[in-house]
Design brief:
With 279 residues, the chain is an alpha/beta fold. It has eleven helices and eight strands. It has one domain: Alpha-Beta Barrel (TIM Barrel), CATH 3.20.20.60. Helix 7 links the parallel strand 5 and strand 6. InterPro entries: ICL/PEPM, Pyrv/PenolPyrv_kinase-like_dom, Pyrv_kinase-like_dom_sf.
Length: 279
């Protein structure tokens, strides 16, 4: 086993240990090197990428429109700069078939990440909102097999888009979750489900760490912890807030010539030190 594999294995094991029901891993998702360094500097135990944020930062739309090479280039840059484990949102796997998903996972490991999100939602004309369960299970099994063959206990977080796409309720979600876990997933991610009663049903019905996506209007992380959630992530929410600030500041400067939106910005020296490694 090479030194790089040992390092990845140790980071993967450390990342796995952070998924504790009732004491969830909190992930303020990053989308570029600067945001990743800021998230780490704020005290996060790991850095998770947001596929939407990464796509926007690279000039592409979200929804399987960014190629594997460009997406994982951003992941590699982040993983090479932070000290904590990195988990990559790889959309539906940047591949047409299970073999391609395995190739993507090998590239994820080469980039230095020790976790992935793989979603079952579909994009494009003529497609249903969700990939058939059996087909998605095959893709997850390919991801698991590629990681196991590399000797790295990659944390495979299977995203179930039933609630996000309005394509099913608790029973449909539990059915998919069971199939995905049987295929080798380690955790289940159900974005769009934040109602406390629903979250409790999902926690009780899924034999694995549950990840929910939270933002304005969702219960605080402490309440989600009390329900038994093991992972709370922000998705693209922080990236959206950052871009909204850019738009407000630009419009204010152009329309009124004033600068109020820039109030509270980070000091130049603080950001410069962070980017130069002076943390």
């Amino acid at each position: 086993m090479t030194n790089s594999t040992v390092l990845l294995r140790d980071r993967a094991l450390a990342f796995r240990s952070l998924h504790v029901p009732g004491r969830p891993l909190i992930l303020p998702n990053a989308w570029d090197l600067a945001s990743a360094l800021l998230v780490e500097d704020a005290g996060a135990g790991a850095v998770a990428t947001t596929s939407a944020g990464v796509a926007w930062a690279l000039g592409a739309a979200d929804g399987d429109r960014l190629g594997r090479e460009r997406a994982l280039g951003a992941v590699a840059e982040i993983a090479g700069a932070v000290r904590v484990p990195v988990t990559a949102d790889i959309e539906s796997g940047y591949a047409e078939d299970p073999a391609g998903v395995g190739d993507t996972v090998r590239a994820v490991l080469a980039a230095g990440a020790v976790g992935v999100n793989i979603e079952d939602g579909l994009y494009g004309a003529g497609q249903g909102p969700l990939r058939p369960t059996a087909e998605q299970a095959e893709r997850l099994a390919a991801a698991r097999g590629a990681a196991d063959a590399a000797g790295v206990p990659l944390f495979v977080n299977a995203r179930v888009d039933t609630f996000l796409r309005g394509a099913g309720g608790v029973d449909d979600t539990l059915e998919r979750a069971a199939a995905y876990l049987a295929a080798g997933a380690d955790g289940i991610f159900v974005p769009g489900a934040v109602d406390p009663g629903t979250v409790r049903e999902l926690v009780d019905g899924i034999d694995a760490p549950l990840n929910v996506m939270a933002g304005p209007g969702a219960p605080p992380a402490g309440e989600l912890a009390a329900l038994g959630v093991a992972r709370v992530s922000a998705g693209s929410g922080i990236a959206q807030a950052a871009h909204a600030l850019v738009r407000r500041a630009a419009r204010e400067l152009l329309d009124t010539g004033t600068y109020d939106a820039q109030t509270g910005g980070l000091e130049y020296d603080t950001l410069n030190a962070l980017m130069s490694g002076g943390r």
